[in-house]
Amino acid sequence: MNKRDMENLNLQNAFPEMPQDCRDALLRAARSVKEEKNVKYVRFTFKTALIAALLIIAMTAVALAASGVLGWSDFLGAHFGEHVVPSTAVNAMNLEEKKSYEVGPLTFTVTQLMCDGHIAVSTTDIRTADGSPALLTSEPYDPIGAWGDVSAAVARRLGVDPSLTWIEAAKKLGLPLYNVRASLETDLAGSGMEDPLWDENNNISYFSMAYLELGKPEGTLKGELFLRVALIDPETGEEVEAERAVRREKIEIPVSETLEEKVFRPETPFALQGMALNTVYAEHTVAGLYLTAEWTVEEEVQKACADENSRQDWLFEVNPDAENVGWHDETGQPYPIGMSLSGSLDVDQWPNVLIGDMISVETMPHTLTMICGEQEIVLKQENTK
């Protein structure tokens, strides 16, 4: 999984004090955004420790998973809820004709592919070609029970102590251990995430998501599946070079058309420290609803942030460790988090700032309620009374 981090410039004293919860909810400066200058667009993850969270998803689902091929609904649903992946996404990604590839002693079968123009996802089932028992993992050097009680199910199934690493378990059990990957790669991806999920037979479904930050494909997304397996020598802990296999397969994923687009405006003017909310643009795709809130930075802040670096630094310093804005439906119920598990921040149109978000929906709502701390901002579609 890919993560990122940014420098700071303290301008907080230039403005009236803003409630911490609103500050946290508004700008969500990522805990891990790559440190580099002149970055106008930044993708960040909503969750405090996404790497740990996704690993917990995988381990939690071990206890829940039945035998058979697992999908994104299993992977994300185990931790974030069953409605994170909408039915439109499931229908779009499930392949009628699954493609299998032999890579060394393993069979990699692609079971799901989807692209909605913002993200592209794949699911690959991995198991031994001859059905023989083996240990499959993407982190052979980690303890099997590294993530607490939820991962103990893996060790229990293997009959080993959860403190053992995969390598130690392979040595104890006398089973071959394979280090595996099945990544979706494309030139349009600026970042991505990937992780495995085990079924009750210890086969792996490997999930890969690419964030298409470097361009929006039209018609078809061209990419590659990077499939890799390496046998680990339990005595040395090293990969056996002669037992390492890599395969790259060209793929083309149809890009699902946008289902609907709407612009939402606040019923009454709304502003937070140094910023005023203009509109929220909503794009409904098969994967869910992408929301882009346009804020205008007030004149006082514009004067204080004369150059590009200070603008970025101000945005991140105002809210150095933020969580996501909440979105509720017309009945007051929170929307599930979107399956991309991420958002974005764009200062390229300064003094306007674009903050991206994603929620899971089946249909386009007529109204949206933005929750910022204890404040609620009702937004309605343009021309909606």
Brief digest:
The chain has 385 residues and is of the alpha+beta class. The protein contains eight helices and 19 strands. Helix 2 packs across helix 3.
Explain what this protein looks like in three dimensions:
The protein is an alpha+beta fold. It has helices spanning 20-27, 50-64, 72-80, 87-93, 152-158, 166-173, 299-304, 308-318, and strands spanning 41-45, 94-103, 106-115, 119-128, 135-137, 177-185, 191-198, 204-211, 220-232, 239-254, 260-266, 271-272, 275-285, 288-297, 326-328, 342-346, 352-359, 367-372, 375-381. The strands form three sheets. Strands 1, 11, 12, 13, 14, 15, 16, 17, 18 and 19 form a ten-stranded antiparallel sheet that branches. A five-stranded antiparallel sheet has the order 2-3-4-8-7. Strands 5-6-9-10 form a four-stranded mixed sheet. Helix 2 (50-64) packs across helix 3.
